[in-house]
Amino acid sequence: MASSMLSLASAPPSASLSSHEIEKGKLNLGNSSLCFKKDKTNPFMKTKSVGRISMAVASNVSRFEAITMAPPDPILGVSEAFKADNHELKLNLGVGAYRTEELQPYVLDVVKKADKLLLEKGENREYLPIEGLAAFNKVTAELLFGADNPVIKQQRVATVQGLSGTGSLRLAAALIERYFPGAKVLISSPTWGNHKNIFNDARVPWSEYRYYDPKTVGLDFEGMIADIKAAPEGSFILLHGCAHNPTGIDPTPEQWETIADVIQEKNHIPFFDIAYQGFASGSLDADASSVRMFVARGMEVIAAQSYSKNLGLYAERIGAINVVCSSSDAAARVKSQLKRIARPMYSNPPVHGARIVASIVGDATLFKEWNAEMEMMAGRIMNVRQKLFDSLSSKDKSGKDWSFVLKQIGMFSFTGLNKAQCDNMTNKWHVYMTKDGRISLAGLSLAKCEYLADAIIDSYHNVS
Amino acid sequence: MSTASTCATRCSWWDHVTPALKDPISAVTQAFLADPCPYKINLGVGAYRDDEGKPVVLQCVREAEAKIEASNFLESTSTALSSKLVEESAKLVYGEDSDVIKEKRFAGIPALSGTGACRLFAEFQKRFYPESRIYLPDPTWSNHRNIWREVHVPDRTFRYYHPDSKSLNFMALMDDVKNAPDGSFFLLHPCAHNPTGVDPTDEQWREISSLFKVKNHFPFFDVAYQGFASGDVEGDAKAIRIFLEDGHSIGCAQSFSKNMGLYGHRVGVLSVLCNDKIQAMAINSQLQQISRTMYGSPPIHGISIVSKILSDPDIKAIWLKEVKVYLVSSFFFRFCTLFDFHYYKDDWTDSLSIISKCYKVMATRIHRMRVILREALERLESPLNWQHITNQVGMFCFSGLNRAEVYLLEKEFHIYMTPDGRISMAGVTTKNVDYLANAIHEVTACDQDAKILHNTDAYKINTDIRFTSLGTSKTRARGMNLAL
C-alpha cells in the first residue's frame, strides 16, 4: 500500500495547493486512520489536481502550518526600513553601530592588524574548550576588573567566553533559572529591548525599576532606589556598567555608592551588563569604575561583557560572562555549571573573535593603539553631541533646555520624543530611530547635525 | 551607611552550586592535556589529525580566507553572507537540482555548528509541539540528549546498534519505529553514525523511509559528516535524498566542523522543509527570534569561509578533492570485508597484501589506520574479533571496550577515549598504532571477568559458530546506553 502511495508522490509539487487553500478547507481530504492528533485534517493525504484528474497523493503536509510570522525586531527593523528608503537626506540613527564622520562602518586599525597577524600565523581551527579561549578569558577579566584586582589574583572570578553580550547574558540567565528558581531580575525602565526577551526565553521572571524621568530627561534616582528597596530580598539587579542603553543617562559616582548600599542592604545580587566599556568616557579603565567599586566592597557580582562596540567586532560575537564569588572554590563550581549550560547550546564558543581580542588586549603595543582609537571614537561622539546641542539651542527659540544632549553619555541619546513624534521624524524627515525616542549618535555626522536639529525641533513642537 | 562586608565573613551566594559533571567528551581532552606522559594518545574528540598527530587546516579554507576582506564586519554584508551560506548549504544537502531548492521550499538559518542547529530545532520543536518527544538512536552522540533535555523535550531511544554483531539491528529499529506513536519526531544520522560508525544500507534507508511515511513521523537529520563517510558529498547525502524522493518534509542540522575542519569557528545551518516560500519566511522569523535571545547571530568569520568555499567553483573543487584524500572511502571498506574470511585463518598475509595494494591506490589516512590497527591486533594474536574496526565507517570506531578496560587504558597506558569505548581514528598515527594495539591487547587479555579469554581454544569454538561477541555476557552484553 505504501509503495503505491509513494509512486503518486512523484507528481510535480508545483501542482500542490498553497497552505492558504488548505486552511480555507478547499481541500477535500481522504480519510485515513493515520490522522496526526494535532491536525483536524489528515496531513498525510492531500488531493492534487493534475489536469482534470484528482489524485490522492501521499505527501507530508508541513506540520508547521500554524506558524505565524514573528514580529520584527524593533531595533534591527529600523535598519531594514532605512535600507528600503530612497530619500537622499535619509539618516539612520537606529542600531548602535559606530560610524565614521562619513557615515561608513569602521573597522578598527588595531583589529585589521590583529586579523592579519592571525592570518599569517595560520593557527589551527580546533575546538576551543567549552569555557572558551584561555588567553581571552584571562585578558577580558583583567580588562574589566583591573589586572591587579585581588579577585583575579585569588581566582575568585568564574569567566566563560560567551557569544557577545547577548550570549553571555543568556548563560547568566540560565544559571539564575537553575540555581535561583523563582528569583526575579530587575531591569531598568527602559532598557535594551532584548533584555526582556532573553529572560523570557530563559524562563526567568523579571520586573522593572524606575530609571528614566521624562520630565527632566534624566535619572529618576529616587524611583530607582525605592524600587530596588521594594524588590524581594535576593533579587538580581541588572545594571548598565556605563553608557546606559537606550537613555545615555548614567548615575554619578555618589549615586552608584548609594545603589550599592541598597543592594547590599537588601541582599540582592548586582548583575552588570557592560556593552560599552571605553565608549562612555573614552577611557577603558574609567568606564569600569562602577563595577570595580562594587567588587571592592566585597560583593559578589555578575558581569556580562561585549566587544561588539568597543572593538567593532559585532559580527564575530565575542564577549564574556564573569561571576565574582567570595571564594575560589565557589568560582570553580560556578564555572563548571556555566559550561554545562553552554554545552547543549553550542558546545564551545567561536575561536576567531576570541583570538583577535586576546591578541589586542594581550599585546602592549596593540592595546595602547586600541586605547587611542577608543578615545578617537568616543571623542567623535562627544563632538557630535556638542554640535547637535549647539544647533538645537540656536535654532529653537522656545527656551527648551536641550542640555540633556550633553549630559547623556555614550552612543545613545534619549530625545524625549514620543511615538507620534518619532513617526514624524521618520515619515517627514526620513530620520530612522527607535520608537522609544532613542537616537544613536554613532550614526550621526557633524555635517548632518543641523538637519537633525530641524527635525527634532519640528517633531517636538508641531506633533503631539 | 555603606558596610563593606569582607569575603571571609559572608557566605557565598553560590554555596548551593555543586560541581557539574564533566562533559564526557571534553573531559577526555582535559584529562589528556593534563597528562605529562610523553607518549600519551588522545582518541577522544572527533577532530581530524594528520599522521604527525597535528590538526590540519584545509587548503580550501586558506584560499577562502585569503579572498575574504575585513569588510565582513559590515552588517549588510553579514546578512548577504548568511543568506548565501544557507542557500549553498541547502544545495549541498538536498541536491542542487531538487525541487525543494528550485522552489525555495525551505526555511534555513545559520547556526553554531551542529550543536547549535540541533538546539535551535529542539527549541522550535518545543515551541510548536510542546507535548512532543524526540526519538534518539541507541546509542547516539552524548550531547543529543543534553540538548533536548535542556528544552524540556523528553527523549526516548529506538534500537540501532547490535552489540553482539557490531552492526545495525535493523529488525529492532523497524519495530521501534512502528511502535512509536504516529507523528513522532525522530533524530537520524544519515551517514557515519556517531559513535558506532554503523550505517543502514540504501535499501534499508528506503524501508525506513516507507515506514516513516506510513507512521507520519518527522525525520530530523543530524548531518555532521557529509563527505566524511565515503569521501563523496553526494553519496553521503543518499539517505536524505531517499527521504526527499518519498516526499517527506524533513529537518536538517548541518555542521562544517569536520568536513571543512572548521571546528572552532562553529559553522552550521539548520533547515526545515516547508510547503512554500511564505511558510519558509514565517519559520525563518521564528528561528531568528529563538537565536536572537541565545546569542544574536553566529560569528561571521566562519560563515564567510564556508559560503566562499561552497560558492566559488575553484575553491569548492579543491575542497571536494581534500575531502576524498584526507578522509574515509567506504568502497575500500566494503572491499576489505570481502577478505574478512581470511582473518579467521592463519594466512591473513595474503589478504593483507591484496588490501595493501588497494590502499596504495585509494589510500586515505584514516582507512590505513583502521587496517593497520586491526592487523596489529591480529598479529598480537588477540583472541578477540576486531573485524569491526574496518567494518565501521567514518571517524570513529566503536571498539567494544568496556569501562573497566577504558579506565585501564587511561591509567596504565595514557591512552584517552570516551568511557563508551569510542575511539577517534583520527588520533591514531603510524607512530602510535603499535603502542595502541599492544595496550588494547594487554587490557583485553587481562580482563578479570573473562578468564576464558586466555584460553584461545575456547574462543576458537566461538568463532566456529560465528559468534562474534567480544567476550562473556557478563562483561560485554551490557546495555548500550553509554555516556548519553
From TrEMBL, chain A:
Q: Which InterPro entries match?
A: Aminotransferase_I/II_large, Asp_trans, NHTrfase_class1_PyrdxlP-BS, PyrdxlP-dep_Trfase, PyrdxlP-dep_Trfase_major, PyrdxlP-dep_Trfase_small
Instruction: Pinpoint the Aminotransferase class I/classII large domain residues.
Output: 90-456
Keyword Protein transport part of the UniProt annotation? no
**Keywords, comma-separated and alphabetical:** Aminotransferase, Pyridoxal phosphate, Transferase
Question: Per the UniProt record, which EC number(s) apply here?
Answer: 2.6.1.1
Q: Which Pfam families match?
A: Aminotran_1_2 (PF00155)
Q: Which residues form a coiled coil?
A: none
Reactions performed catalytically: L-aspartate + 2-oxoglutarate = oxaloacetate + L-glutamate
Please state what class of enzyme this protein is: transferase
- PROSITE patterns per UniProt: AA_TRANSFER_CLASS_1
Give cofactor(s), names only.
pyridoxal 5'-phosphate
Q: Which family does it belong to?
A: Belongs to the class-I pyridoxal-phosphate-dependent aminotransferase family.
Assembly and interaction partners = Homodimer.
Q: NCBIfam families this protein is in?
A: PRK09257.1
Q: What else is known?
A: In eukaryotes there are cytoplasmic, mitochondrial and chloroplastic isozymes.
Protein name, UniProt field? Aspartate aminotransferase
From TrEMBL, chain B:
Q: Which cofactors are reported in the record for this sequence?
A: pyridoxal 5'-phosphate
Q: Which UniProt keywords apply?
A: Aminotransferase, Pyridoxal phosphate, Transferase
At the top of the EC hierarchy, this enzyme's class is transferase
Per the UniProt entry, the Enzyme Commission number(s) are: 2.6.1.1
Q: Which residues form the Aminotransferase class I/classII large domain?
A: 40-322, 356-440
Q: What does the record give as the reaction this protein catalyses?
A: L-aspartate + 2-oxoglutarate = oxaloacetate + L-glutamate
Name the SUPFAM superfamilies on file: PLP-dependent transferases (SSF53383)
What InterPro entries has UniProt attached to this entry? Aminotransferase_I/II_large (IPR004839), Asp_trans (IPR000796), NHTrfase_class1_PyrdxlP-BS (IPR004838), PyrdxlP-dep_Trfase (IPR015424), PyrdxlP-dep_Trfase_major (IPR015421), PyrdxlP-dep_Trfase_small (IPR015422)
Share what the entry says about its subunit structure, partners included. Homodimer.
The family annotation for this protein states: Belongs to the class-I pyridoxal-phosphate-dependent aminotransferase family.
Question: Extra info from the record?
Answer: In eukaryotes there are cytoplasmic, mitochondrial and chloroplastic isozymes.
> Could you identify this protein by its name?
Aspartate aminotransferase
Species, as recorded: Hibiscus sabdariffa
